[in-house]
Amino acid sequence: MKPVHLCTLAVLLAFPALAANNLPDLGEVSQATFSPQLERKVGETIMRDIRADRDYLDDPEVTDYLNGIGHRLAAASPNNRQDFEFFVVRDPTLNAFALPGGYIGVHTGLILTAQSESELASVLAHEIAHVTQHHIARMVVQESHNNLLSIAGLALAILAARSNTQVASAGMAVAQAGAIQSSLDFTRENEREADRVGFQILKDAGFDPRGMASFFERMGKFNRLYDNNAPVYLRTHPMTTERLADIQNRLADTPYKQVPDSLDFQLVRAKLRASAGRAEEAVAWFDAGLKEQKFNNEVAQRYGLAAALLRAKQLPRAERELMQLKKIAPAHPMIEELSAELKRAQGQDAAALAIYRAGLKLFPFHRALIYGYADTLLATRQYADAVKFVNEQLKFRTGDDRLYEYQARAYGGQQKSFLSHRALAEAYARRGNFTAAIEQLQIALKSDEGDFYQLSSAEARLKELKALDADARH
């Protein structure tokens, strides 16, 4: 099979839960324009399955960092009218991929492999360019005998090859998608265009464009060393000497600009490394780095050690390391969150709440602190305070499904069944699970609670959700 960039293919390779028949009924999409609205609908459909997959990393600190970098890049993209959402996949392989509708996923392995923030940003810029240049739509429309469902079908067959080659062979025989057989020249054309546009995005966003060159040079070495066992990113983004030469030529006309990595970049990488593999191995890795003075940033190295110690349940030592960390670190929400988590692990909920309150005064929009404070209030059965806090947060974060889940738990603790089920319905709705949302609203309406206004509002919302559910199925 020829190497080819297929964003939908890449994501389907990553997620076993995703099935071709979960995609909306698009008909023969090549007969009409693959419109931005249709792209978004397809992307939302795929994302519902991704969010339900065990490898989807639902970590607010990592996700918010990635979205901060991604949106900074997207804002520098010329003529961009696309909304973007960036998400993380818990996978040690080196990969990133774009979906229809502006959804871009990054494997944890790629974040850990990037040797600078500009290298990570270069990958995101490249993927953003694939979206803004409408490469998915152009590919689907060009393939006059295939639609997105056939692409998904073959992607699932390739996915099956990981565990069962016989099943995969049968699947490929069924899903002979012409789109997968696109010419290598067409693929290289897409990649060159994404390089060119991504390079300019990276530069205009204030990152070091040499990050793109250094990352792709390293990928080129991987390609030569490992050939058929090259990283996933190389299989979905074929690397050529022409592409490398083109990037180097662009750099020749670009003045040198040193761009230091942010502390957020270093802390996020440390957090991911602390959560990977066995906890004891993570502790040993951070210990060795500190002992041998082999680290890029001491604050991040000590943060990672404290996080790994907490995960290994070595709580007294984790507390000592945090005290050392705070002596050298600036005020940072991730450090405050880790401190509160440690207090909770030690059974000191009151101390954790105090840390959360202080942290939220300094960093009022940090989601991990918001969630941690709400969860600790619920754990200590301070339901009235939890309701008040969550309702205040929902004034500014109306699309936050996790806040609605906390609201449901808080109302449940107060024995307010109607409000609890109503809140849980909103949590499901924001996850795109309209069937579950409808069920929760129906349960709420069958309760003996709720005044006339609340019941009328719930009935109107039920009709709206049924319409959304019907639309999602077609």
Give structural notes.
The structure is a single chain. By secondary structure, the chain is an all-alpha fold. It has 2 domains: 246 residues, no CATH class; 94 residues, Alpha Horseshoe (Serine Threonine Protein Phosphatase 5, Tetratricopeptide repeat). Helix content is 67%, strand content 3%. It contains 24 helices and 3 strands. Helix 13 runs parallel beside helix 15. The longest helix has 21 residues.
Please summarize what this structure is.
The chain is mostly helical. It has helices spanning 7-14, 36-52, 60-75, 108-113, 117-132, 135-142, 148-160, 165-174, 184-204, 210-226, 232-236, 241-252, 263-275, 279-291, 298-311, 315-328, 333-345, 349-362, 367-379, 383-394, 401-413, 417-430, 434-446, 452-472; strands spanning 85-89, 96-98, 103-107. It has 24 helices and 3 strands.
Q: What characteristics describe this protein?
A:
single chain; about 475 residues; mainly alpha; Serine Threonine Protein Phosphatase 5, Tetratricopeptide repeat; 2 domains; 3-stranded mixed beta sheet; 3 strands; disordered N terminus
